[in-house]
Amino acid sequence: MKLFSIIFLLMLFVQLFNCKHVTYDTFVKHFYEKAAHQHCNIDSKLDFLLKISNITETIRSEFQSIVEPFMDNKTANKVWSKAQINKTMSFSFWMDRISGINDGQKLNKETYSNLCAQIDIDSPHRLDKDFDGQFKKWKKKPIDMQHLEGIKNSIDHMELENEEFIENFKKELKDAEQLREILSEHIARAKELLLSTLETTDRAVLMDAFGKAEPITSQITQKQSLFFGKLVEVKRTLRLYNKQRIIWVEDIMGVELKKPSCIGRLFGSLKKPFAKKNKQ
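The structure corresponding to this sequence follows.
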């Protein structure tokens, strides 16, 4: 009996693990097929539903390294011990400074991870748990010609709205990239100076290294804060884009999808592309 129960639970787990939700790519392909059956060729017109931009991978390739820890505890302890030679910038000063930079890196990494999670959303199910069921019903029904005409007439409007998202996204990403470059240079130079203190016992050399590192590490904390703000802006634009995609899909399908109450206020600020005349 116990063996049967274990096997049953394992089978259930495998089913849940293998459960795949309807993606935007699947939805768009099925819509193109429905339109083609009505002799309406609008292939690629709704490809903006697939992702906000082709440059999203820039975030992964160029931003990940800049949010890693500034210095591990073992190395930091060694640097702190060297800092005791300077009464004006003591052990506690550098302990607070390095710990503060590490805290800033941790916060930026969390924000970066949340941002990437928004990029990874490829299914309406992530925001609307009812979508898969509605899609199955919609998939079985032919599209109404009057509704299809409404979609065709609204595509330009949807694309204009999408261009607003793209414009904001690219601007915010460019600002973040500029800060990333500055922050990267500061972090590399600060590490070089602080790690150099581990190679000497000469008091003058140590004083010089810590003296040069102080203003650079101060700049790091300032740039970290600005970089955090830009990451938040990029993440917010991606969140709004993902929420707007649900609205676009809802109107294209001609159904009223159930939106989570926690994002109702945000949905209220977004736009409906056209008034639905026919429910599918």
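The two ends are 47 Å apart (CA to CA).
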